[in-house]
Design brief:
Helices cover 36% and strands 11% of the residues of chain A. The longest helix of chain A has 16 residues, at 232-247. By secondary structure, chain A is an alpha+beta fold. Chain A has two domains: 3-112, Ubiquitin-like (UB roll) (Roll), CATH 3.10.20.30; 118-247, Alpha-helical ferredoxin (Fumarate Reductase Iron-sulfur Protein, Chain B, domain 2). In chain A, α2 (119-126) packs antiparallel against α7 (196-209). In chain A, the strands form two sheets. Chain A has a five-stranded mixed β-sheet with strand order 2-1-5-3-4. The N and C termini of chain A lie far apart (63 Å). Among the domains of chain B are: 266-408, Succinate dehydrogenase/fumarate reductase flavoprotein, catalytic domain (Flavocytochrome C3, Chain A, domain 1, Alpha-Beta Complex); 481-635, Fumarate reductase/succinate dehydrogenase flavoprotein-like, C-terminal domain (Methane Monooxygenase Hydroxylase, Chain G, domain 1, Up-down Bundle), CATH 1.20.58.100. In chain B, the strands form five sheets. Chain B has a five-stranded parallel β-sheet with strand order 5-2-1-9-17, sandwiched between helices. In chain B, strands 11-15-14-12-13 form a five-stranded antiparallel β-sheet. Chain B is globular, with a radius of gyration of 24 Å. The longest helix of chain B has 25 residues, at 563-587. By secondary structure, chain B is α+β, with helices and mostly antiparallel strands. The chains are: A alpha+beta, B alpha+beta.
Chain lengths: 252, 649
């Protein structure tokens, strides 16, 4: 297969970016999208035409959340429930033109080419995306029975890989699905309920402070999430946000 | 080199208790004055940093990715072992200990493994308290599954994403400490050099991967938790950025490197399909709970399948060879990884392999789907089936999966004593980066257990025993001449790598050399090794290394975000490490676990150990790029366990 690639190039955070066009040929349909970019980079290194295209990637099996490209206007490309690294060229037609961009969202500034800075997500987690335990001194695991249904729901939300596709897909660059998923994962569990209301409050305030936009319920995030995290997590977040306005211990 | 394993006195089951009772501690006021560096944010690094930070130490933690949550522990699928005996099926600390020693083919240190089994239950308690959503049964209690090398169900799991959930638990604990200010996070930083002052590890030089700047960090102790070196084979189940360089610079600064030839080849991975391929994907060992492995009994059937004339579903039941069940009736499809991998290779080499290349066997779920129903199978393994379908484009509910062995884990690593301290005082190694617990073969679901045991329950104790003497030291200064010198060395090495391609007439990319190295290692130092193959490998690696230092081309500069430079820097170390792996494999004239020398096998093709001559840990010492390494033995004294032939029949 052959492709014409229009790729966003930007030397660093301060530089002005632009699209550059490249051609690749003899690409197998079994090849993954990132392997196709590897082939392009090998060409660029060998021919010394341009600096290889920088893109984040690591596990290449869809779990680390490191990769994330905006491909033909969709985060992680045109296959549903898939990360960029698990997207294969068989989902494209021979001769296709492909537009490749980085995540575009104010809280995710570009570092170089297709690589963006997602440390804002870590900062949201640091604001409360955990259960406060120290090592040791915890009860035996089976002293906290959890209904299978609840554990499953929690696990559904915990499957988030923190790639940022939800933010990239949202016209407001909202992080509500990311925050909603983490809040659901922890607040559904009895262990997480102790700090539930503070967690909601602190994470949402941090999210706003970092410049993520508001949710206007278009659910592009749900449609593009590679792990198919459900929008019900946003509803739960909203409910708990209202709950914390009345339920928190104000004396703290 | 003097190797003191510092195993505490007393009966095996009391060693850890005795150690904790008599070790030195650092009082809370002094903890604030002690700085610790942790490199790596996988299960071992994140759990160590979180625990040390919670104790009150000042911790700096480093990762090469953009977030600590991306470390490759996240990709572990199947589960984590613990001797909880929740299933009432006869499990105990003693049994987990015995299974692990036997699984490692009697090449691991008794005391370390016993401690691992002892703390395994605490790990599960800790993770549940953190909110790890482990699988549960309908009564709300924790569920278990079975893994290779065990006859009990002791593996806890969170669907096919156990590593992810455990790492997110540790990452949560780490994030809490970062918020509290006890831990400072440095992301997109790669450790380039270890700084040793007066014989003690006192800091590291890192490269800021965004700006290219070299930065110095000083501390009273350094923990390296940077994973294994499986990527030396180029195609492996490791992540693209996983590398052996942090451990290797420690080795170059004087830390002994143990058992480098023990490499685990995992039996169930998606087979190789093309030259452009960048990595191999694992299909969890948990699939062997319900999947049955087979190839056709008749060669002509295998040939017809390879030629696309027959489908696997066309082969009648009596014409299928369930070779693991046939050869190992007691453990069946759940034999340990090294045994399953060799058995697959044996069938494929004999001409019974399937798939376009003939290098694949079937992992079949038809029986399980009939017995349990598709829904149950989907609930248990849904995400793995989906992943398989995404990559291979066939439906594993309809047709059996095709699998083949691939490099997965390295049992070898930095030599550590009972305290997880390397031969450099103040330098500790945890998780896959050390060699300590798995002997010559690791059992499935034990890597997560070891990483978290080291980080949550071992280092927070043992490091204090070292740090108690360090409270008089005062702050360590990063302006010491040793830091200056180390930084200069890194700068020079980077410059020399850039200079090669600028002056050479013929050049190649880093990946070109890495792929070539991987092919040599896989072919000659892979699942089967012998004198001849190892000699060839050594010669070819040396030639390739020489070519690399004359022809590699790295675009751009050192002062920018430059992944090609990162890859080149890591590959330069891999060449040295490759030579050490080969040397170690040459010297170990026996077969054990993942190290299979074809000269040393039984009549039925099983590993043949030589306990009389090789019951030791081989710890290697570095003497410069062009000089051979020297080996010191740490004899393994089994006082508790009875040595036996490793039999899974």
């Amino acid at each position: 297969m052959k492709f014409t690639l229009h790729i966003w190039r930007q030397e660093n955070a301060r530089a002005k970016g632009r699209f550059e066009t490249y051609h690749v040929d003899n690409i197998s349909a079994e090849c993954s999208f990132l392997e196709m970019l590897d082939i392009l980079n090998e060409q660029l290194v060998n021919d010394r035409i341009a600096h290889p295209v920088c893109f984040d990637n690591d596990c290449r099996e869809g779990i680390c959340g490191m990769c994330g490209l905006y491909i033909n206007g969709r985060p992680h490309g045109n296959d549903d429930g898939t990360t960029t690294c698990q997207l294969h060229m068989r989902h494209f037609n021979d001769g296709d033109e492909i537009w490749i961009e980085p995540w575009r969202a104010k809280p995710f500034p570009v570092i170089r080419d297709l690589v963006v800075d997602r440390t804002a997500f870590d900062k949201i987690i640091q604001a409360g995306g955990y259960i406060s335990t120290t090592t040791g001194g915890v009860p035996d695991a089976n002293t906290i029975p959890i209904a299978k249904h609840t554990a499953d729901q929690s696990m559904d939300a915990a499957a988030c890989i923190g790639c940022g596709a939800c933010v990239a897909a949202c016209k407001n660059a909202s992080a509500m699905l990311f925050v909603g998923a983490k809040v659901s994962h922890l607040n559904l569990l009895p262990q997480g309920r102790v700090e539930a209301l503070d967690r909601v409050r602190n994470m949402v305030i941090k999210m706003d402070e970092l410049g993520f936009g508001s949710c206007t319920n278009t659910y592009a995030c749900e449609a593009e999430c590679p792990k198919q995290i459900k929008r019900q997590n946003i509803s739960r977040l909203n409910r708990q946000w209202i709950g914390q306005m009345f339920g928190r211990d104000r004396k703290k | 080199m003097n190797l003191d394993s510092k195993i505490p006195e007393g009966p095996l089951s009391e060693k850890w208790t005795n150690y904790k009772a008599s070790q030195k501690l650092v009082n809370p006021a002094n903890k604030r004055k002690i700085d610790i560096i942790v490199v790596g944010t996988g299960l071992a690094g994140a759990s160590a940093a979180a625990s040390l930070g919670a104790l009150g130490f000042n911790v700096d933690i480093f990762c090469i990715q953009d977030s600590p949550r991306r470390a490759h522990s996240i990709a572990a699928q199947g589960g984590i072992n613990a001797a909880k005996n929740y299933q009432n099926d006869g499990d105990s600390v003693e049994r987990l200990f015995r299974d692990t020693i036997k699984g490692g083919d009697y090449r691991a240190r008794e005391a370390n493994v016993y401690r691992l089994a002892e703390v395994s239950g605490n790990i599960i308690d800790q993770c549940v308290a953190q909110g790890v959503p482990f699988a549960r049964d309908y009564g709300g209690l924790l569920d278990n599954r079975s893994f290779g090398g065990a006859q009990v169900s002791r593996t806890f799991y969170a669907r096919g994403q156990t590593g992810q959930q455990l790492l997110l638990g540790a990452y949560g604990a780490l994030s809490r400490e970062i918020a509290r200010g006890s831990v400072r996070l440095h992301e997109r930083r790669e450790m380039m050099e270890l700084v040793v002052v007066d014989g003690r590890a006192r800091g590291i030089i890192v490269r800021n991967l965004v700006t290219g700047a070299l930065e110095r960090y000083a501390a009273h102790a350094v923990v390296v938790a940077t994973g294994g070196y499986g990527n030396i084979y180029y195609l492996s189940t490791n992540a693209m950025n996983s590398n052996g360089s942090a451990a290797w610079v420690c080795h170059k600064r004087g830390a002994a490197f143990a058992n480098p030839c023990y490499v685990q080849i995992h039996p169930t991975c998606i087979p190789v399909h093309g030259d452009y391929q960048s990595k191999l994907t694992l299909m969890s060992e948990s699939l062997r709970n319900d999947g049955r492995i087979w190839v056709p009994k008749k060669k002509e059937d295998a040939e017809a399948i390879r030629a696309h004339k027959l489908k696997p579903t066309d082969i009648a039941e009596q014409d299928r060879d369930y070779y693991l069940e046939r050869r190992y009736p007691a453990f069946g499809n759940l034999v340990p990884r090294d045994v399953a991998s060799r058995a697959a290779k044996e069938r494929c080499d004999a001409g019974y392999g399937v798939g376009p290349t003939g290098l694949a066997v079937y992992l079949d779920f038809a029986d399980a789907i009939r017995r349990l129903g598709r829904d149950v199978v989907e609930q248990k393994y849904g995400n793995l089936f989906q992943m398989y379908q995404k990559i291979v484009d066939t439906d594993p509910y309809q047709e059996p999966m095709m699998i083949y062995p691939a490099v997965h884990y390295t049992m070898g690593g930095l030599w550590v004593d009972y305290e997880l301290q390397t031969t450099i005082p103040g330098l500790f190694a945890a998780g896959e980066a050390n060699f300590s617990d798995h002997g010559a073969n690791r059992l499935g679901a034990s890597a997560l257990m070891q990483g978290l045991a080291d980080g949550y329950f071992v280092l927070p104790y043992t490091m204090q025993n070292y740090l108690a003497d360090q409270i008089y030291q005062g702050k360590i200064s990063p302006d010491a001449p040793e830091f200056e010198q180390a930084e200069q060395q890194v700068r020079q090495r980077i410059d020399s790598l850039f200079n090669i391609g600028r002056n050479a007439s013929e050049t190649h990319s880093v990946d070109h050399f890495h792929k070539s190295l991987g092919k040599i290692m896989w072919e000659y130092v892979g699942m089967a090794r012998n004198t001849e193959s190892l000699t060839t490998a050594m010669q070819r690696v040396k030639e390739l290394e020489n070519q690399f230092w004359n022809q590699v081309y790295i675009p751009g500069t050192a002062d920018e975000f430059n992944p090609e430079l990162e890859k080149a820097y890591r590959l330069a170390d891999y060449f040295e490490l490759a030579r050490l792996i080969i040397t170690d494999a040459q010297h170990r004239e026996e077969s054990c676990g993942g190290h299979f020398r074809t000269e040393h096998q039984t009549d039925d093709g099983e590993t043949q150990r030589d306990d009389e001559h090789f019951m030791y840990v081989a710890a290697w010492e570095y003497h410069g790029h062009d000089n051979p390494e020297t080996m010191t033995k740490e004899e393994l004294n089994y006082q508790h366990i009875k040595i036996a032939k490793r039999n899974y029949k």
